[in-house]
Amino acid sequence: MDGRYQQLAWRMTLTGLAVTLIPLWVTGAAIYLYFASTQEESQRAQLHNLALNRSNAVQLFLAERTSMLEALGHVATLDALTSPGELENVLGILNKRQQSFVDIGIIDANGEHLAYEGPYHLEDRNYGGEDWFEETMLRGVHISDVFLGFRGVPHFVIAVRRDDRTAPWILRATIDSDVFTRLVQSGQVGLTGNAYIVNRAGRFQTAPRFGGEILATAPFDPSIAPPGVNVVFREDEHGRRLMTAFAWIASKDWLLVIDRDSSEPAAPLRQALRLELIALVIASLLVGGAVVYHIRQLVTRLAEEDRSRVATEAQLAHSARLVSLGRMAAGVAHEINNPLAAIGELAGLMEDLIDPAFLASTPHAGLFQDNVRKIQLHVDRTRDITHRMLGFARRMEPRHDTVNVNDVAREALTFVEREAAYRQVELVRNLDPNLPIITSDRAQMQQVFLNLLNNALDAVPEAGRIVVTSRSDEDGVVVTVEDNGCGIPEELHDRIFDPFFTTKGPGEGSGLGLSICHTIMKGLGGSLTFTSSPGEGTVFQVRLPRHQA
Amino acid sequence: MAIKVLLVDDEPSFVDTLKRRLTLRKLEVVTAASADEAFAVLDRETLDVVVLDVKMPGTDGLTAIKTIKRHHPLVEVILLSGHANLEASVGGMALGAFDYLLKPVRIDELVYKIEDAHRRKVLQEEKIRALRAAAQTHAGEG
């Protein structure tokens, strides 16, 4: 393919890819965006439910622990609880299912420990005047914020007041917040999910996954959270956009926070995106491949067709030129024939009238007689030329003979045998005996063969060689006349079949032979072609169809 | 008896010369410069063979054959033309021309053709005479 077709192929390929791939990817993107937006909605709902669920679990946890202490206060008497060893027993029962109670103490209305069981040895500690003590005495129940207790483990305290007999007393227990923290952290989803509790002052009550240590101050003000359970979008301290669920825990003024990075797609969306990308890439490769392949094929075929059309057009133009030249030749011949006939008759009459008396009358009479004969000879020569020129116009209806091409070739060969022998030219007959009998015009074929043989004889040097070959193929019969003569120079190839084109000297050839042969072969539905390499010889090939058109 | 030939051609130097040459060859020759002139001669004289040019001003050779054959069916016509074309040759033969020759023609060839044409004319006339005789005999018997 040359540059023009290459360029066309590129343009078509780019257009083809654009019109197929752009809609494909736009559709893909639209589907993804639609899916993502529905996904965001469902994520929001999911986060809302998660927050609600976790906050309920936390409340339940606190309510359970509180209830356990209240139940204990109701079931057991103060005396029983303060009796030695009893509290250790109680702590064992409380922790039977879950190791969440760290210690337990009984405190009287003055803040003095009546009994204590646990690792902190608080038996002598007086809580009188402390905030939590006052609050418990006042309200009957207190849940503390988280603090780092024994061995740096986070704890919080639940205290309940019991009013029986004479004075109120308090059941106080320290709760290991580990279980509680796990409860909260189970709300962390994905790679960036973060769930934690902050108190009113904004301090972490459970260890967040990111953003700080337990009891550190959270980087936002909890008062931004509206009451109840809400899902909001906010930016964190690093400027990331977060989808956050806030849920106030009613029983303890704590705020449950579940963050997730909103830029991190949810798992189904990630998977959908991956599948869609794979599908799009495969579809793009297939479509792109098909576009590229077919356009390449198309352009290659186009180039081939253009090439063959150009060749056909050139051939047609050449044929048209031959036809018009032929018509002109015939017209010229006609114009010449009439005066030529008159000249011939005039000279003929002169010859007729030359008698012995005339010959004796003048010494020039012999010359007259001679010249009159020569005039007639030249008229004959001219007539031969004009009659051949008329051959172009004489589109005699070709006869439909049944022809054995080998016979015609042999006959033609007999005509040139004598001259060939004289010039010691070797005539090689290479005739296929199994040639099919074809329908054609025997005489015209004869004329073509004779012409080719004569030309070959003129072309070969002394002691040259002419090979006549016949063979058949599916289309018909092919006869080649091959000589080892001088060959035809490349620059003359285009003009070989032109009328009046000859390489022979003046008076030796009319330049009509091959031209007429070409016309005849066309008329017979066959063809006359040649290949020639200067210095090595020429091969003329005659193709005859099995059945004449 | 000499063969009587009518030469029809619009080229005077050609007809006149040819007339003299044919006369030298013992033929009896009359000439006409056009088809219409030829019809007049044919009506006037009994002729054997017409040598007719195809391309002439006025009535052309092919039209002329039709007229000649209609009025003088036994007269043989030889077409002689400087122009070789399919219509003229095929058409002329179809219209009853004896043969078609190309100018310039060798004098001997032309004479042979004229003699051939005359022979055919004589044969035709004999056949007709024979037919007539047969018809008369038949009529006599009936």
TL;DR?
Chain A is of the alpha+beta class.
The rounded Rg of chain B comes to 16 Å
Estimated share of beta-strand residues of chain B: 15-25%
Q: Biggest interface: chains and residue counts?
A: A-B, 29 and 21 residues
pLDDT average of chain A, as an integer? 85
CATH architecture type of chain B:
3-Layer(aba) Sandwich
Strand content of chain A: 15-25%
Give the ordered list of helices and strands of chain B.
EHEHEHEHEH
**What is the assembly state of the chains in this entry?**
heterodimer
What would you say the CATH architecture of the largest domain in chain A is?
2-Layer Sandwich
The helix content of chain B, as a percent range, equals 40-55%
What low-confidence regions of chain A span 5 or more consecutive residues with pLDDT below 50?
A: none
* Number of E-type strands of chain B: 5
The rounded distance between the terminal residues' Cα atoms of chain A is 37 Å
CATH fold-level label of the largest domain in chain A: Beta-Lactamase
Number of domains of chain B: 1
Account of the protein in words:
Chain A contains 11 helices and 17 strands. With 549 residues, chain A is of the alpha+beta class. Chain A has 3 domains: 1-264, Beta-Lactamase; 268-390, no CATH class; 398-545, Histidine kinase-like ATPase, C-terminal domain (Heat Shock Protein 90, 2-Layer Sandwich), CATH 3.30.565. Chain B has helices spanning 12-24, 35-44, 61-71, 86-94, 107-141; strands at residues 4-8, 28-32, 49-53, 76-81, 99-102. In chain B, strand 1 (4-8), helix 1 (12-24) and strand 2 (28-32) form a beta-alpha-beta unit. Chain B has 142 residues and is of the alpha/beta class. The radius of gyration of chain B is 16 Å and the shape is globular. The longest helix of chain B has 35 residues, at 107-141. In chain B, helix 2 packs parallel to helix 3. Chain B has a single domain (4-141), classed as Rossmann fold. Classes of the chains: A alpha+beta (549), B alpha/beta (142).
